[in-house]
Amino acid sequence: MENASRGGIALVGFDADDTLWRSQDYFDEAQAQFERIISRYVDLADVGRRLYGYEARNLAFFGYGVKGMALSMVEAAVEITDERIAATDIKRIVALAKELLRHPVELLDGVREAVEAVAARYPVVLITKGDLFHQEAKVRESGLADRFRRIEIVSEKDPATYARLLEEFGVPARRFLMVGNSLRSDIAPVLELGGWGVHVPYHRTWMHEAEVPSIPGRARMREVAAIDRLAQAVVELDTLASAAEQNKGVDA
After folding, report:
1. Which of 14, 59, 74, 91 is a good FRET partner for 191, with 20 to 30 A between their CA atoms?
2. Is residue 210's pLDDT more than 80?
């Protein structure tokens, strides 16, 4: 490809949840219903933060996604209510998870056109984390699967994971660009490796993803307020990547 020959961006990665389709909205709705269930037993103003504490501690055991949230909700419900919660309400909590798993995929406005515009110029891959079966189902239902050369569902999105994937792709970090809504998971790890990123903020962010570490290499990142600006931002960073490649040792 032309892009590969001149040494710019050789591969663009896309996040999925809250970048391509809605996700956090539904989790927040489930949490609100969970809080209403718990409010019948205790009068606490910080149930949501208490729940997050269980979710964060359980990531190492259950990973990301609906199933991990559901198990954390059950554990939190039992402990917050001092084991007074009724079996019928535990059943209601499990039903919240099933409803999340059945929720249809709703693409964000302009996403299909944005992905196609970038894919017309660069090879694109999808890199998402979460429950394997649920993520596979969402990718399948999105109608976007055939736009991506590779679809990777990972348990974590950190520098080590991206480094492993880039080695498999045969693309150096300095020629890789990641698009996503999460600074923590989509942008910061890639910048740390020397890659590039386009941040597309979403109006809702899970507490875990809102905890953003220091981000090195901000000059290699752009933020766009609307997805229709994505292709322009990718081309702009591609130009910088090409210039950096031609001027070895110059930090973009």
Report:
1. 59
2. no
Structural domains for the chain: 2-21+106-246 (3.40.50.1000), 24-102 (1.10.150.240)
What DSSP element (H or E) covers 153?
strand 150-154
Q: What whole-number distance in Å separates Cα of residue 67 and Cα of residue 175?
A: 35
Q: How far separated are the first and last CA of the chain, in Å rounded?
A: 23
In sequence order, the 6+-apart residues with CB closer than 8 A to the CB of 21 are 105, 106, 107, 108, 111, 138, 142
Distance of CA 27 to the CA centre of its chain: 14
Angle of helix 47-62 relative to helix 24-38, nearest 10 degrees?
120
Give the 3-state DSSP-derived string for 188-235, with helices as H, strands as E and coil as C: HHHHHCCCEEEECCCCCCCHHHHCCCCCCCHHHEEECCCHHHHHHHHH
Which pLDDT does position 211 carry in this prediction? 64
For position 128, what pLDDT does the model report?
A: 95
Q: Token pair 């394997």 is at which residue?
A: 132
Are 179 and 186 spatial neighbours (Cβ–Cβ below 8 Å)? yes
Distance CA 118, CA 12 (A): 8
State residue 241's pLDDT score.
Answer: 95
